[in-house]
UniProtKB/TrEMBL annotation:
PANTHER family: DICARBOXYLATE-BINDING PERIPLASMIC PROTEIN, PTHR33376. Keywords: Signal. It comes from Neomoorella thermoacetica. GO terms for biological process: transmembrane transport. SUPFAM superfamilies: Periplasmic binding protein-like II. One of its GO terms (molecular function) is carbohydrate binding. Pfam families: DctP. This is Sialic acid-binding periplasmic protein SiaP.
Amino acid sequence: MKRSKLILGLGLVLVLVLGILMGGCGGKTDSGNVGKTQGTSDTGKKLRLGWTVARQDDHPYTVAAETFAKVVKEKTNGKVQVDLYPGGQLGGDRDMFESIQMGNLDVGVISAPVIASFTQVLVGTDMPYIFNNDYDLLYKAESGPAGQKLLQKLEQATGVKALSFIYQPFRHFFTNRPIKSLDDMKGLKLRCMETPVHIDIFKALGANPTPLPYNDVYTAMQTGTIDGFESDVIGANASKFYEVSKYITISGHFNNAVVMVMSEKTWAQLSPEEQQAVQDAANEAAKASLDITKKANDKYMQVMKDKGVTINEVDLKPFIEAEKPVIDKYEAQIPEVKEFVEAVRNMK
């Protein structure tokens, strides 16, 4: 009896040991890829591309990302594929940029004002009124030598591969009272991004800049915490801001530059032919974002009118004059700002 119990016990131990060994051989399929950027599949390499805005068919970020993925796949004959993660699934702009720097994310569409906390080389793209609300001038500046030089400096400063600028509509003022002249800006509690440049820009207009997270804007307008904010019309429509703002003042003060960046680690793992395909795809994504921006801007401006929002046109000359000291300040502080602004001036 004792002998049979001993045999039974040894048998159970043997089964348990075999189970552990077999689990160790076959249980690491998923965990083996945790923290890695570029993955592989039966058809080749897979890249992850993230951006913060929710997926919307005619949003420039969506169009840029989908164009990039399509062209990469076509130009590499399916050897490189891009998986898309919209709506902040991979984190906010700062989180994604840091992940790209560390090699934990392949590609991201990142807002330039966020990058300003890493390097100031792109601050010149945020200078007020240098583009005169002109999309062709914006594209000429940022896709041409002046913009490409900024992307090279971004690479040198942060260690990412800067592929291209991505384009979106110029930004205007959304308020609960009309703005008919520069005087109406005085004391206006205006939500802005939490960056020194933007705070300086709106102070120069006489407003009272109030840094707030973007997701708090709707409630802040409802409660009167702020009198207004600035946004492009595509984002404003997506957030239903026509429900809490009665007026749009056409300002076009800046464009809020966006860049498509890639992990240097991922870039180095691509063949020269694949690298060229990725760069070509980024260039096509930039142009596609510009094209949809022009169409969508007109479309959603009309949507705002249809929703009962009043569109104001103002004399922008006093606004432009008020911002000259801000430009002078940043030109004196940051060489890249002076170089870029001068390049844009020479293109007009």
